[in-house]
Amino acid sequence: MMDKAHPVASLEGGRRLTVLALGSQVALGPHRSHRADSILSALVHRRHRVLSEETPPQRHEQEGTLARVVRWCRKLTYRFTGILSADLVCVMPLGGLWPWESIALRIQRKPVIVDYYVSLYDTLVNDRRTVAPGSFIAWFLMMNDRRLILTATSLIFLNRSERDFYLKVAGVPQRSARIELLPLSTSAKMRARLPFARREHAVLTLCWWGTFIPLHGLEKILEAMSLLKRQAAPVRLFVFGTSAEASLPFEHLASEKDLLDLVSFDNTKRFVDGSLENFLARHCDVGFGTFGDSDKARTVLVNKVVEASAMGIPVVSQRTEAMREIFRETIDCFYVEATADSLADCIMNLVRTPHRILEVGERAHGIYERHFNDESFRQRFGDLVTEAAGG
Measuring CA to CA, which residue among 183, 184, 182, 164 is closest to residue 174? Predict the structure, then answer.
C-alpha cells in the first residue's frame, strides 16, 4: 500500500483519518477522471491519510497463469487488510466491492462512502449494449451495483434525477443510508471569446468533445450538419475525441455525407494539457450536450456541459431530467428535440441571432460558479467525510 498523505497549507476541522480509497481510478495518476482527482484532493486537503494501490492498472496479455494468480492474491490481500486498518472506506467512481468485502464492512460497522458516479450495469447493458441482458456478466454488474448501494453508509449521487434513475435500475428503493447530492465539478477555465457572436468571425464554430459512445448521439449532429450544408449555413464543426480508432465510423459517416469540408476530427487535444481549452477559448461559439436515445441519455448531466459552462460556452442539448434541474430553457442553454431537424433549426436561429450566444453563455458561466466549481466540491466532500466518520 502507498500512503498518499501530503502536507497542505491549511487544515479544516476534524480529526485526521486513515481512508481506504478503492477503485482503479485511484492509481491512474494524471489519467484519472476529474471526479476521482477531486475526491482525492478533498481528502489530501484535510490531511487524511489515503491508502491506495501501489501501481496503476496495466495490461497483462503476456502474463502467465501463476503470475496472474499471484497478482490477484496480492491485490485482494491489500484490499482486505486495508479494510481492517482504515477508519473509513471510500469507493471511488467506477469502483466496486466484492461480497466478502461488503460482509466485512458490515460486521465492523465501518463508515463506507460510495460515489455512485455511474451504474456500470446500465452503461454496458442498456446504453452501450456491449453486454447482453441476462448474461453472467450482466448479472455480475447488477450485483455489484446493488452491493454498493446496500453497503454504503453515505451514498453520493450527482443530482436528484440520476439518484432516482440509478436506484430504479438497480431495483433498490431509497433506504436509510444517508444520500448526498454532490454535482459534477471542473476546474476554473479560460473564458471563451465566442468570436462569431462578437462578429469577429463570419462562420459559427460548433465544437463537440468527448468519447464516441451512443449516449452522445454524435451521428445526429452530423446529420444536422448535412441539413445545414444544404441551406448554405455559415457553420463549421470540430469533433474532439479520445480515440482515433473509435472516431473512424463517424469520419466515414461524415465522408458519406460529403461533410469533410465542414467537419474536422482531432483526437489529440485534451483538457489535461490545456490544448483543448486553448482551442475552445479562441474559436468555439457553441457546444453540445447529449442526443442519445437511451433512458440514460435522457436523464443525465454530462461533463461536457459543465466544462462548456465553465468557459461561458452556451450548449445545445436534448432535454434531460438532470439538466432541467439547473439549466433553464433558452435562458441558460438551448434545448432541442433529439433529432437532426430540430438541432439544425436551432443552429440556424443562432446564426441569425448571435447576441443570444453571448447572453446564454454568460448565464451558463454563472451556473458554473454557483454549482460546479472545484472549491465547492472539495469543501462539501471534506465535510461529508468528517460527518461520516463521526466528526
Answer: 164
Whether the Cβ atoms of residue 353 and residue 333 lie closer than 8 Å to each other: no
CA 252 to chain centre: 27
Cell reading at 64: 502467465
Query: CB of 154 within 8 A of CB of 111?
Result: yes
* 3-state secondary structure at position 116: coil
Residue 293 confidence (pLDDT) above 80: yes
In angstroms, the CA 304 to CA 310 distance is: 10
Overall residue count recorded for the chain in this entry: 391
Record the pTM: 0.89
Strands 2-3 and 49-52: what pairing? antiparallel
Mean pLDDT, rounded, of the chain: 90
DSSP one-letter code for 210: S
Q: How many helices (H) and strands (E) does the chain have?
A: 14, 13
Residue 67: all three cell numbers together: 503470475
- What is the CA angle 250-256-259, rounded to 5? 75
